[in-house]
Amino acid sequence: MAISAVDPKPVLIDCDPGIDDALALLLAMSEPTHLDIVAITVVAGNVAAVQTERNARRLRDLAGRSEIAVFGGCRRPLLRPLQDAAHVHGETGMDGCGLAAPQGRPSQRHAVAAILSAVAKQPGQLTICAVGPLTNLAVAIVQRPDVMAQLKGIVLMGGAAAAGNVTAHAEFNFYVDPEAARIVFESGIPIVMHGLDVTHKARVDRPWVDQLLTVDTPVTRSVAGMLSVYNGGVDGDPRGRPVHDALAIAYLVHPEWFGGTDCHVAIETNNPDQIGRSHVRAGADIGEEGANAQVIFEIDADRFRSYLAGQLQSL
Ligand code: RIB
Ligand code: CA
Questions:
Q1: Which one of 118, 146, 238, 283 is separated from 221 by 20 to 30 angstroms, measured CA to CA?
Q2: Which residues sit with their C-beta closer than 6 Å to ligand 1?
Q3: Distance in Å, CA 304 to ligand 2 centroid
Q4: What is the C-alpha separation between 133 and 191, in angstroms, rounded?
Q5: How far, in Å, CA of 227 to CA of 223, rounded?
């Protein structure tokens, strides 16, 4: 048995695959010595929860990690109807992936129960990486705040200090379920927030895909196929496309590549023109509420892109 200098970090990944979620999950599953994935939970977001659950199992099978449990979660946001992102990810949520239907059957255990059980099993040790709407986490917090207070922390993709990507103000994950995001940011659980401010700095483009494909595997072929569809394809923007969720996973393994600031983040749930906006205040502007999140603004994008390609090629 290899004696690693550092034991793998226990992590639960809550997601809505989704093409950038797919890259995030594949990246996480490529790092068994750094990340002990205790479970994957899925939520309605990019596409319906039934589909995100199927996609998570398809990716688990693709990565050869079929031992990782997948649990289906909330089928809609807390108060609002689901507004999905099929126009970005395709009707399946992973158009272009070229993958067969998943093996086996969905678990009968709900994601919220799985989250609470995983937290209670490793108090103070477990990190949740949340890269979709925060509905599952919010329900878990409402059901058992005492258990969720034992979380080591939440590393999430969502929000933006500057402009949104659904409205001028709101990023998709927070826009889809703003009440859930508000519950999470008011919970007191330590949060690291990767918003659009940083994810838009680490895009992948055609040269990156071409380099990825110099290693021809089922994983690289599937990723290239998805990126040809994702938000109109990598060729659709000369800057390339942001792979939002993959940054949150990379942060878990290489936090030294990122730079952040302690901030107070408040989620807009009242002003109809700014629903889902993350009001980010730093420094002297934080006020008496104090900081409730570290907001990431900087990344070593070249290191990240090279790492992501290398890890996907290694699967
Ligand atoms: O705004 C980007 C986020 O919304 C990503 O998590 C993407 O998968 C979508 O869910
Ligand atoms: Ca996502």
A1: 238
A2: 16, 18, 20-21, 45-46, 85, 131-132, 157, 165, 171-173, 244-245
A3: 18
A4: 15
A5: 6
Q: Is residue 1 part of a domain?
A: no
**Domains of the chain: total:** 1
Are 32 and 105 within 8 A, CB to CB? Answer: no
| Burial class, 248, CB count within 10 angstroms (exposed 0-12 / middle 13-18 / buried 19+) | buried
- Per-residue pLDDT of 219-268, as tens digits, reads 999 999 999 999 999 999 999 999 999 999 999 999 999 999 999 999 99
Strand (E) positions, the chain? 9-15, 35-42, 70-72, 127-130, 153-157, 191-194, 203-204, 241-242, 258-267, 278-282, 293-299
Q: What is the pLDDT of residue 6?
A: 76
Question: Would you say residue 2 lies in a domain?
Answer: no
Give the residue carrying structure tokens 């900081």.
Answer: 291
**CATH code of the domain covering residue 91:** 3.90.245.10
Residue 275 maps to a domain: yes
Query: Does residue 4 lie in a domain region?
Result: no
Task: Give me the residues near ligand 2 (ion), CB cutoff below 5 Å.
Answer: 16, 18, 21, 131-132, 245
Helices 218-227, 49-62: inter-axial angle, 10-degree rounding: 140
The segments of the chain whose pLDDT lies below 50 read: none
Query: Quick one: pLDDT at residue 286?
Result: 95
Instruction: Give the number of whichever ligand sits closest to the CA of residue 230.
Output: 1
